[in-house]
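Example 257, ligand adenosine-5'-triphosphate.
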Amino acid sequence: MPHVRIDGVSKIYDSAKGPVDALRDVSLSVARGSFVSVVGPSGCGKSTLLRCLAGLEEASAGGIWVEGKKIVEPPFNMGMVFQRDALLDWRTVLENVLLPADFRRRPRKDFEAKAGALLDLFGLIGFHDRYPRELSGGMRMRVAICRALLDDPPLLLMDEPFAALDAFTRDELNIELQKLLASSGATTFFITHNISEAILLADTVVVMDRRPGKVAKVLPIELPRPRPLSARETPEFAAYGRIIRETFESLGILRSH
Ligand SMILES: Nc1ncnc2c1ncn2[C@@H]1O[C@H](COP(=O)(O)OP(=O)(O)OP(=O)(O)O)[C@@H](O)[C@H]1O
Ligand SMILES: [Mg+2]
């Protein structure tokens, strides 16, 4: 049984200007522990798909099953990093990371060591007692990632988590994330606009077409793991990049010459 099964999901939003066709007939089966990168142009429904997976948005047609159970509300055993970091301004960095413990009504002290270790790993040593307003955009995003990872969720949903980071930090976190997931075994959906990041991290890259968002291509990435940053310089890696760019070109989304 796949860990996650997305079956014929369409999403139509009601808006003041009439219905918005955000997703059309998206289907995808994802094995446990695998990493799915989702790439596609702005507005093609990537965040919508993630919000449906998270149970925050109801599909207009079709459905999503996780471990064979249909998603009808946000489940506890899932970590989510929102495109906007969604930190609580009145809580310190550490208290923000400990939020899942409160949700689950579990004692914070059971999670404090883990929260501290995650913050340190993500370069936030010395910032545990600061408030979100005192952080840069990239630091806030890192706090949001720590929060999503706090309870080792079997399903991790990340909406452009590294978009606000500088290239060096992004590279570093690409490596750290691989290490974390290798030990946690979480199934991960990861949205990015960066094709090379999508390939480096993924077992499968899902390429989406413009609105109404549909799956244009499902591309398995068969590069050996672990993947150091230098994997990006191999001909095999470049070939995957070419396939994705050609897919965008054939959809009229990208013109590279
Ligand atoms: N709550 C909403 N009400 C009405 N329309 C919405 C709502 N949320 C999203 N949309 C529309 O649905 C479409 C898909 O939006 P979505 O945020 O999923 O795109 P995206 O692929 O994540 O884009 P980006 O790469 O810019 O983040 C867009 O046209 C957007 O305007
Ligand atoms: Mg989005």
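Summary: The longest strand covers residues 18-30.
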